[in-house]
Structures are given as structure tokens and as C-alpha cells.
Amino acid sequence: MGRSTVNGTKAVHGGEPRAKAHDAITHPISATATYVFRDTDELRDHFEHRIEREEYGRYGNPTVRIAEQKLAALDSAEDAVCFGSGMSAITTTLLAMLRQGHHVVMTADCYRRTRQFVTSVLARFGVESTLVPPGDYEALEAAIQPGRTRLIIAESPTNPYLHVADLERLVAIRDRHRGVKIMIDSTFATPINQRPIEWGVDLVTHSCTKYLGGHNDLLAGVVCGKASLIGAIRDFRGVLGGVLDPHAAYLLIRGIKTLELRVKRQNETALAVARWLEQHPRIDTVYYPGLESHPGHLAARAQMDGFGGVVSFLVDSDEEGTAAFIDACTIPQIGPSLGGVESLIEQPALMSFYELTTEQRQAIGIHDNLVRFAIGIEDTDDLIQDLERALEAVPANIASPTRQAR
Ligand SMILES: *Cc1c(COP(=O)(O)O)cnc(C)c1O
To answer: pTM of the full predicted structure?
Structure first.
């Protein structure tokens, strides 16, 4: 299979022509909605011989194309197509590949909006789905309906428990069933830490809003894979219209140039933070695939070059005590999202499941004392000192519901 290691050289130079307009070192932003033809002959040539050129902004843009080529290079893919958000990449891909009567198998811990799209939107158009528990490969294979199942959708690592999907096992299952393809949402890993296409996965998606953009200043999405498949998805983008704006594409290209530096730093800090939290008396459980204690550790070691920048953990307290800890942090700010240079921290019970009761949250595995820490590129020592100070804000007399349960 020839697995590579992605390096900073690809992040800086990958997918770009060496010679650029006006001898500039950067690729220009092509801010144009349409493209003009010299004369009718050129127009005829374009339609008859499909000469490579842009025609209209919904079908392509040279700045966006550079971002696509760079992302394809990083993920060892033949081609890639960008969108205005991660969700646009996912929904357009699924609408391009599926039709009435098809069936999808999806791991139950996929991104909440992806699950919503599959189980409620696609269901309205006659596409059925089966959700299987993460890590249960027997259930996943048993859910495949011969002739109907077209796609296995999984994510790795996942939010918030950082479950790791064993790519080798998923690909082996795919190979036993004709007509089935695998799509992996690799957002949490980035192409620096994991390149699923090198393991035989058909399609890889990223929310480029996270690590790839890396600066919390843009929304974008991408899907990478074989050129024929990506071409069909690109055609469908022309129908649905979820294009990436060239200005955001420029920021994305610029962000990717430092991807390797940022992700390596985030990997290192996250591992140090996870190890530090694991020995802290006010911390109940730490979820990080780089820890030997994590159930996905061995799979992560086999298929990843680093374990990512998100660490989740249970504070030994209740909802209020956990909120007091979060409010006492002075470096990470409270917000959804991840992967940017600024650290973000959140209590999933409140950020994502505010409308549910404690009992309803427990039923879907979200504890009130769960914290998701999306690490930025601040100094590791500063972040750990901040956590140490903030943990002093946790009232000492309240034990966590998770600890009482054990
Ligand atoms: C954020 C995210 C998405 C959605 O991406 P947007 O860019 O916000 O549309 C999809 N999958 C995962 C794993 C994400 O973290």
C-alpha cells in the first residue's frame, strides 16, 4: 500500500504550480463569478473538446483548485473537491452517491449533523440507514444488506470520546461486499496524523474549518478520493451550489502551509495535557487515544502518526462544579469547534445538549461532568498551569456522578 509520512514540504508546496502569476510566491485570489471566451470558436472548442478551463464560478475557481490539489496531495488522493463548509462536503457527497432504495451503515458516534442528515433527510428520499455502535465490527458487517448497502460511513477519531475506527478492519469488511464503499470523516486526525486513503478507504472528508484552516477564521470542507468519484461529486456541487469562496480558499491555502507545525505542536501538547490530567486527583477519567488506557490506543498507534489535539475528560464533580472549572480557565475560551491556534474548552452537556435533562444525556453517553478541551498552539506549560489553577475552583465536597457509579 506504500504508506507515506506527510511532511511540511507537502503542506507548503503540494498541489501548487512552481511558477505563479506575476512571479509572485503566493497564488492569487481569483475573485470572479464568471470566465469569458475570446470568441465563439473558443466556446465551441470548450464544449466539443472539453479543453481545461473554467466556465462559471459554481463549476470551478483557480484559487479553490489550488486548495483542492493541495488537500489531495496531503491525503494521498488522486483528487479532491472543496465546499463552503464540512457539512456541504458531506451532504453533497451523499446526495451524489445515493438514491432511493440504497442503504447506508453508519457508526453511531458520527458528527451529530451528519447523523441528522442521514437518518432524517436521506430517509425522506428513500435512503435507509443502520447505526451501529462504534467498535462493534460484527454488528457493522451484519448490518450490510447485499445489493442495497452502498456506503459505510465512519469517523476517526470521534467526538467527544475520541473513538478510533480500525481502518484495516473496515476495509476488509468492505472488500467482502460488492458495491460497498467507505467514507471516513478524518477531521479530528488531519492528513498529518492519518491518511485513510493509504489504507484503502474510498472517500475521506474533512471539515477544513478545524485544523486545515487552523485559525478559526473560515468555514470550508473537502472530500478526497479517486478522480472518477470526485469528478461525479464535483458535478453535483455544480447542481447544489455549495462552493467555497475564493477568498476563504486563499485563507485555507495559507492555513495549510503551517499545518504540519501546528498539528505536531497540538499533538505534543495534547499528550502532555492528557498525561498530566490522568494523574490529577480531581480528574475522574481522561479520553485521549495517545494514552495507553484508551481503548483505541493500539489501533491509533498502528494507523496514526500522532493522536490529535483534542482531549476529553471527566471532572470529579457535577454539572455546576465542572462549569466552575471551565469558567476559571483563563487561556482556553468557551466555544464549539476545534483545531485553531486558540484553545477552546466546552462542557458538551451544555454546549451541544443543553435542551436535554441529565438523565437523557446519560442515555446517550454524555455526562454532565464531561469536558472537551480543543488544544491550540499556546505554550504547553501555560495551559497546564491554567488547568491546575482552574481545577482549584472545583468544590471539594461534590463527587462526580460517574465516580459514584463505579
Ligand atoms: C465540524 C465538523 C463537521 C462539520 O463541518 P463544518 O465545517 O462545521 O460544516 C463535520 N465533521 C466533523 C468531525 C466536525 O468536527
So the answer is: 0.96
